[in-house]
Design a protein that fits this description.
Blueprint: E1 2-6, H1 21-35, E2 38-43, H2 55-61, H3 63-72, E3 76-79, H4 86-101, E4 113-119, E5 122-128, E6 130-135, E7 138-143, H5 150-165, H6 174-189, H7 193-212, H8 214-223, H9 226-239, E8 247-250, E9 257-259, E10 266-269, E11 288-292, E12 296-301, E13 309-312
Parallel strand pairs: 1-2, 2-3, 3-5, 7-8, 8-10
Antiparallel strand pairs: 1-11, 4-5, 6-7, 9-10, 11-12, 12-13
Helix pairs in contact: 5-6, 7-8
Length: 314
């Protein structure tokens, strides 16, 4: 029995692999062949791409995947990312209205959220920004990974400096408020066809440049490897006072990998489930997923017989 961990399916985009029912069936057959039955599914954010398409289109594209999960009848945990961050905003707005109904109008910052939502008849356990679990006497922390972005860290430092200049102490909610402002602006633009078309043209132009000069992408990929992000991972754990974490599992960068420093947590990136139209990809290893059972941790690529990574949990 294994836990299936998937990140960055980006349902709604043409490049989303698991919008194809045949690919979903292939994934489930591989899990059954290599690891037996699946006991739970953990989704690590950017499952719906609400930055590029309307929510209805993104959720419609996810139906082959979620219908298969419904057939499996197993627990599903969904840790929200940045491209589907609007789901968090919906939860926050709902809580605000509940407090308002009680006459409670004081601002409240809740650093961690957990709630339930139904998708296509499936009960889903929603979490943000992390999900913590125990396995083989080890503590696992699951998150999407967008909090590790260096640009966001720099911007947060700038906000904190401006607050101090104004004589105001930085607030724990500053980072989340900053991200929400940016993410909601992008989310709203998905409803304006002209804006999306313009953004798509920019993405296509950048993809063409990367194809003509792959070395540019190679350098970019090296800069976002698990090893390069390890310091940010340790900072994330330390600043949020999460205690001892044995294994830190995340996505976001679309680049799978495993890395660990002496005395630190094992850091694992699950990769992504997107691929270009011609069934090729500029990604080093597209269509990857993580399987976690009582004995080991395995990263596989869809259609590949041998694991990309195999790590025994001692």
């Amino acid at each position: 029995m294994a836990s299936l961990i998937i990140s960055d399916t980006h349902f709604g985009l043409d490049s989303s692999t698991l919008k194809n029912p045949k690919k979903v069936e292939q994934l489930m057959q591989e899990i059954l062949e290599y690891h037996g039955d699946c006991e739970e599914v953990i989704l690590l954010g950017d499952i719906f791409d609400l930055w590029r398409v309307r929510p209805e289109a993104a959720m419609r594209a996810s139906m082959p995947f979620f219908k298969k999960l419904l057939e499996m009848d197993i627990p599903i945990r969904y840790v929200v990312g940045n491209h589907d961050h609007h789901l968090v905003v919906q939860k926050q707005d709902a809580e605000l209205m509940e407090r308002a109904a009680r006459g409670d109008f004081e601002p409240v910052y809740i650093p961690t959220l957990r709630w339930h939502r139904r998708f296509a008849g499936i009960d889903v356990d929603m979490l943000y920004p992390t999900y913590r679990a125990r396995c083989r006497r080890k503590t696992f922390l699951f998150t999407h990974g967008h909090h590790l972005d260096g640009i966001q860290t720099f911007t947060l430092q700038m906000v904190e400096s401006l607050r101090r200049l104004s004589g105001i102490e930085p607030l724990p909610s500053d980072e989340e408020m900053m991200m929400t402002y940016a993410y909601e602006s992008i989310y709203r633009s998905a409803c304006i066809g002209e804006v999306v078309s313009f953004e798509n043209s920019l993405w296509k132009a950048s993809s063409l440049i990367l194809r003509l000069n792959p070395s540019l992408y190679s350098h970019q990929q090296r800069s976002i490897s698990v090893e390069r992000q390890y310091g940010e991972i340790e900072r994330f754990i330390r600043e949020r006072e999460l205690g001892k974490i044995d294994c830190f599992i995340y996505g976001d960068t679309h680049r799978t990998g495993i890395y660990q420093r002496r005395g630190g947590p094992l850091a694992v990136n699950t990769g992504c489930f997107i691929r270009d139209h011609d069934d090729t990809s500029h990604l080093e290893t597209p269509d990857t997923y993580l399987l976690l059972d009582d004995g080991d941790l395995t990263i596989r690529q869809l259609g590949r017989k041998t694991p990309l990574y195999l790590c025994e949990l001692l």
